[in-house]
Here is the input.
Amino acid sequence: MYIAQILEKLRKTYPHQHEFHQAVTELLHSLAPVLKNPIYQKHAILERLVEPDREIFFRVAWMDDAGKIQVNRGCRIEFNAAIGPYKGGLRFHPSVNESIIKFLGFEQIFKNALTTLNMGGAKGGSDFDPKGKSDAEIMRFCQAFMDELYRHIGALTDVPAGDIGVGAREIGYLFGRYKKLVNRFDGVLTGKGLDWGGSLVRKEATGYGCVYFAQEMLGARKEDLAGKICSVSGSGNVAIYTIEKLHEVGAIPVTASDSKGMIYDSEGIDLSLLKEIKEVRGGRIEEYAQHKRNAQYTDVKDYKSGTNGVWSVPCFAAFPSATQNELSLADAHTLLNNGCKCVVEGANMPSSTKAAEVFLKAKICYGPGKAANAGGVAVSGLEMAQNASMHPWTFEVVDRKLRTIMKEIFENSAQTAQEFNDPTNLVLGSNIAGFRKVANAMIDQGY
Ligand code: GLU
Here is the structure.
């Protein structure tokens, strides 16, 4: 009843925010067993969680290389700061709208709570498309974006980071402008360059963390990844470092994709070729097949069914690492029919609601994004700790801490799932674990 009331109100107030509804509906349904405790309704916890603390929208006017003034929309949605300063990435992509940033910001609250660190939830971004822009255009856009954002953020207030379309280059330009505007060098952004306050392992963290999480899930069932075929979607930061770690643990990652198509390499993805194409040249995944003869390239328009061609490749484990709703119900059935035993979400909400239901029903190892991809923001938290102490840690130290955090996230989620009599359901386990931490802090602190 309480859940239905909240969802109904949300649908009426924000009728067009589909991704946001999807994220809230998924979370609230899995909270049903814990919401039997009347304390949460008494303190209006759900009403307060689904409405962000504040939403900041602004115009970003910048000049392109031809001297023409361009205008984009920017925003920062600060959702919840019950357990720490607002924390979450910035996404620059033409699809960005209020619904997408709200779903991401909402999920960030619970993901961050799971990391064991003290971080609240936020997200921001712009409909600016970095693809095809020159470095100078990217810099002018980032400077204009920060001219508005700087007054709302701070090392102990709100700490943005990267997401789709925002990597080391963008963080550099954003940080440079922030520092000039406030005349202070502090840890206001994470994902910084290694020479100026960044943390080792931050770049690799989400991908490595996903593989560590997969190892924990599989280990609990006395299985592992060694020698196993894995499908990975995407070819950004998350996908590249998932592939790197999969190679390291002896698995065979055979796919990668971008918005134009996918590649299948039965010998295992050549990591240095992939990095050369994507990290150095900023090229298309299609080029991979031009350099490696045995690899097959399939264009999106030739995908036979589902959302992404990579899901039709038979695999033991699937790592959706591209974007929201990239794995449909049809894809979920195809994966299971081909013998897939493990799905680990590197992207945020990559499985549609129906696809996720199918994975839960099949009782395979299913690691939902809020738990499985929390390694990225966890190392952001470690970057904040290093900045605050002015003392950087070695690669080994950060990597060991990341590993421990992923293990703790798995154990916390699995134990919570057990407590609520649904032991294989890590959606329920991770959602309830994250929710309880945030809700209890909200109750402690008053409304
Ligand atoms: N964008 C990443 C995420 O979805 C990282 C956020 C951060 O490091 O603050 O969790």
The pocket of glutamic acid is lined by residues 87-89, 161, 163, 190, 348, 376-377, 380 (CB under 6 Å). The longest strand covers residues 69-80. Residues 303 and 309 are 5 Å apart (CA to CA). The longest helix spans residues 395-419.
